[in-house]
What does this fold into?
Amino acid sequence: MFQQGGYRTGGFGKFHATPMQQPLPENFNYLGFDESIPTEDPKLGPWLDWIEREHPEHYDKALAVSWQMPYCNEYGPDKRDIRPAMLKAKEKYLNARREASDWALMYTSPLPKELHQTTYITDISLSFMQRHLKDHSDKPFMTFVSYVDPHDPYDPPEPYDTMFDPADMPDPLPSAEPDNGCRILDESRDFNGFRAISDNKAAIRKLRALYHGSIRFIDDQVSRIVKFLEENNQLDNTIIVFTTDHGDMMGDHRLITKGVKHYDKSIRCPLIVSGAGISKGITDRLTSSLDFFPTLCDLAGLDCTLPLEGKSFVKSCSSDNADDGWDVVTVQAPPDVNKKTIYSIITADGWRFSIYDEDRQGEMFNLRDDPDEQKNLYNDSAWTQKRLELSELHTRAYMQYSYTQQYRNLPTQNGRKCIVSSNLGKLKPTC
It folds into this structure.
């Protein structure tokens, strides 16, 4: 949409448009980018190749922090088997750090910050913007800058690994119901052996300090981008939207990372919008990731004629009294390794209602009275009416979601687009 609207477009970093078990494509220009360089969680591909080419003295360290994926036996255009070198590098630079840690996924990165993937993503993004202002100053630009961190493993480079004192970190929230028999959550605690430290408050505080270090690292990189815009007189002519794709449990409820855990720490994402025409303030508007597409089109003045599932939140950015949010949003991660999924809704009046698809158990939290989600009201007889109300709302929300998926699969008729309406659970395509 931006490219067709006259913008020069660049995308750099984590796209997550290719399964990680497959080699990264050279670029994602087919998605509408004039320039793009991907680098994902496994770190294989452009970043690793850049280290090998430009900083060969640090190549073994880069190999050590890269993930061993199925295609490592035929890596790159010359189909090299990099597995033996990767194992040696991990033995030399990583294994001792893991063994010295309370948990194998928390340690200091062996790479200097100047060569870290986070810095690399910023560097190539700034390069695109610099060249744009030099060679294409007659056109507006849109840059997608997507960092992998903060993410597991929790491994910021120096000096970010010691910027935060574990003693200053809050203790994790206790599990609401440690013995509630929910197999999905119980098995989630086994993620890479996390269960072994799930009750170790000192270890969790250390993990949180490292995570905060990675966040500060990101902050410093975003600061570089803001400074570039300011020095090139573009800051007042640019909208910056900052968000993430998920949170992290950080030991709360004896859980770690993301995914099937729908506690607030995992599913609440930062959202900051800044720039010309954006009012200062905070809104409690219930917002979904589907809302970014129409919002960005509105901010850029693009006439979007495509079917939209989201709602623009531009009014919330310009008015303190805007009421253009959702009454309810759905939350669903792909099934976990055991093919299990949690389906959740969050309501504008502050409730989370979740159903586990295998066990048919559930959770019901009043997020306003119980923001730490310590009291599950799902089986509380005093809240039976509320449970029925939210259960019906939950069912309607996921029926609508199901309709949307079926709509996407409907063929066009005579070259015309089809719109789907529903009545008593039946799909009615109208062309």
